[in-house]
Amino acid sequence: MGRPAVAVAWFVALPPTFIGPALVPADAPVALDLAVWGVAGLLMAAILAAVTGAAMARLVREVG
Q1: Domain range for residue 33?
Q2: How confident is the model at residue 5 (pLDDT cuts 50, 70, 90)?
Q3: In Å, what is the CA distance from 25 to each residue of 21, 22, 31, 63?
Q4: Residues near 36 by beta carbon (within 8 Å), at least 6 away in sequence
Q5: Separation between Cα atoms, residue 20 and residue 7, nearest integer Å
Q6: Buried b (16+ CB within 10 A) or exposed e, 16-47
Q7: pLDDT tens digits for 36-59?
Q8: Cα dihedral angle (12, 17, 53, 58), rounded to 10 degrees?
Q9: Domain count within the chain
Q10: What is the pTM of this model?
Q11: Which of 2, 10, 20, 32 could form an S-S bond across to 40 if both were Cys, CB 3.0 to 4.6 Å?
């Protein structure tokens, strides 16, 4: 489950990283743009951590 889980995690986590900033208008203040990119990055990290953590927990249960 290791490598497929990581691939799935990246597949799920990358779109929010680019969708959020794409919704910010071009004339928005730089601070808003940076804030949206920051939140999108945190969301990406949270998704990656959740999916890989779940895969690791499953692997530990199967082995142990």
Answers
A1: 2-63
A2: confident
A3: 9, 8, 12, 49
A4: 20, 21, 23, 24
A5: 21
A6: bbeebbeebeeeeeeeeeeebeeebeeebeeb
A7: 999 999 999 999 999 999 988 988
A8: 0
A9: 1
A10: 0.81
A11: 20
